[in-house]
Amino acid sequence: MKRAVNAVVVMVMAAVLAAGCQTFGGRSGELAIDDNTLTGSVKSKLVSERGSNLTLVDVASKKGTVYLNGEVDTPTHKARAEELAWQVAGVKNVINNLQISESAGSPAMPETSDPFGASPR
């Protein structure tokens, strides 16, 4: 009797696992992840990134495509945000609309005592 119950439990678990590995289209091997979960996972990945300010990146997703919007400080941060988005399971495409902040690229003006930039005599 115990063996019969164990066999039924194993068969039910196998059926549940097999069904869980199929998408709505019926293809196995892909995970069907809803857009809210996908967006949350990408945001979490960006927030956890150390050394770059990716917490303000706006993330949206639709049908597995992730959209990154907003401003970042450097081209390296823009590329890193896209790279992190691709690392999330279920991402099918990434549209990187991030802009490089203009204030990050402008050089600082040298300080002088003369507002016209003349050198001291």
Mind explaining what this structure looks like?
This protein has 121 residues and is an alpha/beta fold. It has four helices and five strands, in the order ααβββαββα. The protein has a three-stranded mixed β-sheet, covered by helices on one side. Strands 3-5 form a two-stranded parallel ribbon. A hairpin with a 2-residue loop joins strand 1 (58-62) and strand 2. The relative contact order is 0.12. Residues 5-10, 16-30 and 108-114 have low confidence and may be disordered.
Low-confidence stretches: 5-10, 16-30, 108-114
- The number of E-state strands comes to 5
Order of helices and strands: HHEEEHEEH
- Gyration radius over CA: 25 Å
List the total number of helices: 4
Beta-strand residue fraction: 5-15%
Q: Helical proportion?
A: 25-40%
Shape by Cα distribution: elongated
Largest sheet: 3 strands, mixed
The assigned structural class equals: alpha/beta
Q: Strand order across the biggest sheet?
A: 1-2-4
On the 0 to 100 scale, the average pLDDT is 75
What is the rounded distance between the termini? 104 Å
